[in-house]
Design a protein that fits this description.
Number of helices of chain B: 4
Order of helices and strands of chain A: EHEEEHEHEHEHHEHHH
Strand content of chain B: 35-45%
Low-confidence stretches of chain B: none
Order of helices and strands of chain B: EHEEHEEEHEEEEH
CATH topology of chain A: TIM Barrel
CATH topology of the largest domain in chain B: Alpha-Beta Plaits
CATH architecture of the largest domain in chain B: 2-Layer Sandwich
Low-confidence stretches of chain A: none
Radius of gyration of chain B: 19 Å
Largest interface: A-B, 29 and 26 residues
Mean pLDDT of chain A: 92
Oligomer: heterodimer
Number of helices of chain A: 9
Number of strands of chain A: 8
Largest sheet of chain B: 4 strands, antiparallel
Structural class of chain B: alpha+beta
Distance between the termini of chain A: 29 Å
CATH superfamily of the largest domain in chain B: Ribonuclease P, Pop5 subunit
Shape of chain A: globular
Radius of gyration of chain A: 17 Å
Number of domains of chain B: 2
Strand content of chain A: 15-25%
Number of strands of chain B: 10
CATH superfamily of chain A: Metal-dependent hydrolases
CATH architecture of chain A: Alpha-Beta Barrel
Number of domains of chain A: 1
Helix content of chain A: 40-55%
Mean pLDDT of chain B: 87
CATH class of chain A: Alpha Beta
Chain lengths: 214, 164
């Protein structure tokens, strides 16, 4: 299992190259990064997963996009919308992560969606950028939403991922710092460890129900 | 006023913090206000009054921040929410915590101070644009785009430049 930051934006979205981000991630205690629209690879001992973030699309367009990306072994994540959209997304094969629930509607993720996420192995992402750079109401709302998600997580056991959404090496945070930030939303150390391994959990194919022994 | 005996004094801890990007010049007072603002914003006035953070020393890219014993974790979480100081993007990376300033000074001396590095051309091209090399430390290369309009700093590596 690898400690993974589930979303970073290297150059040209941000001001740091993917290699520099890998170098920084190594110093900060990570083993793996999911980098948006960047080919997979390994730099300075840090594994880079290609990440595809789909946003502002209807379900029909989303299905065709996911079909196109299915063979690329990329981590596909979708920006959350309203409750109906989120339930549809969670049911789609090929979607790994549902993101941005902190800025979605209050009822965007309920107990039904939580159960579906657990059944389909779709992770819910905790974006730490509103906790790091947000102030006042923005941060309070994000913390409230994340606490609510964690209540559902404890009940239904769906996977969780943690991402910094860093566009610069200056926005990346160390594993210890992230553990501290997650303690603000009621996550203890085993919870955080499990969330760091979230990308590994969702990208590893499940064990087959029937084993063929020759 | 006579000094209090050691058993009655407030127990303090000191955090050694590294400022990134290296070479950023930050006034100690500005940093104090930034730390104080971040602490108050995250924990509120009540806990900030208990933490009583203060920037007590600054050496190169390192600063030493004081707090009450037992509040180190709260302060380090607050430090991780700092993204700018006087509109300059920075990151504060906690290196160590100690009960004395002297031991942290010793720690600064033992940490290898990055030199200016050696890269023969002081200019380079990246993504078909001309950049001026600002800082070079091992694999890390910080560049600034040439021109008047866009002077943002980019964070690259030597390999990024060799590839082009």
């Amino acid at each position: 299992m690898k400690i993974t930051d589930a979303c970073v934006y290297p150059y040209p979205y941000g001001d740091s190259s993917v290699r520099r981000m890998a170098l920084e991630a190594k110093a900060l205690g990570f083993d793996c990064l999911v980098a948006a629209d960047t080919p997979s690879g390994e730099f300075y001992g840090i594994e880079i997963h290609s990440g595809i973030l789909i946003r502002d699309t209807g379900v029909r367009d989303l299905i065709s996009r996911i079909k196109r990306e299915r063979n690329h072994e990329a981590v596909v994540s979708v920006q959350a919308g309203d409750n109906g959209f989120n339930r549809s997304v969670i049911n789609l094969k090929g979607v790994h992560i549902l993101r941005g629930l902190h800025s979605a509607d209050k009822n965007a993720f309920d107990h039904v969606a939580a159960k579906m996420a657990a059944d389909n192995g779709v992770a819910i992402d905790l974006d730490l950028s509103p906790l790091i750079s947000g102030r006042g109401f923005t941060r309070q709302r994000a913390m409230h939403r994340y606490r609510d998600i964690l209540v559902l997580k404890r009940r239904y056991e769906f996977p969780i991922t943690i991402s910094s959404h860093a566009r610069s090496i200056l926005e990346m945070r160390a594993v210890r710092e992230i553990t501290g930030l997650c303690s603000l939303i009621g996550m203890d150390i085993p919870d955080v460890e499990k969330a760091f391994f979230g990308v590994d959990i969702i990208t590893t194919p499940p064990n087959p129900a029937v084993k063929v022994i020759v | 006023m006579s000094t209090r005996p050691p058993t009655l004094r407030e127990k303090r801890r000191y955090l050694l913090v590294q400022i990134e990007p290296a070479g950023t010049i930050i006034d100690q007072k500005d940093l104090y206000y930034t730390v104080s603002d971040a602490t108050t914003s995250l924990w509120g006035d009540v806990v900030a009054a208990v933490i009583t953070s203060a920037v007590v020393a600054s050496e190169g890219q390192y600063v030493i921040i004081r707090c009450q014993r037992g509040t180190e974790q709260d302060l380090s979480i607050a430090l991780s929410t700092i993204t700018t100081c006087c509109d300059i993007p920075i990151a504060l990376r906690m290196v160590a915590a100690s009960g004395t300033i002297e031991s942290l000074r010793e720690r600064i001396r033992t940490v290898k101070t990055p030199g200016p590095g050696s890269i023969s051309p002081r200019e380079c091209t990246f993504d078909k644009k001309m950049f001026q090399i600002n800082r070079c430390d091992g694999q890390k290369v910080d560049v600034i785009e040439k021109g008047f309009k866009n002077t943002n700093r980019l964070f690259l590596t030597r390999e990024d430049m060799e590839e082009l």
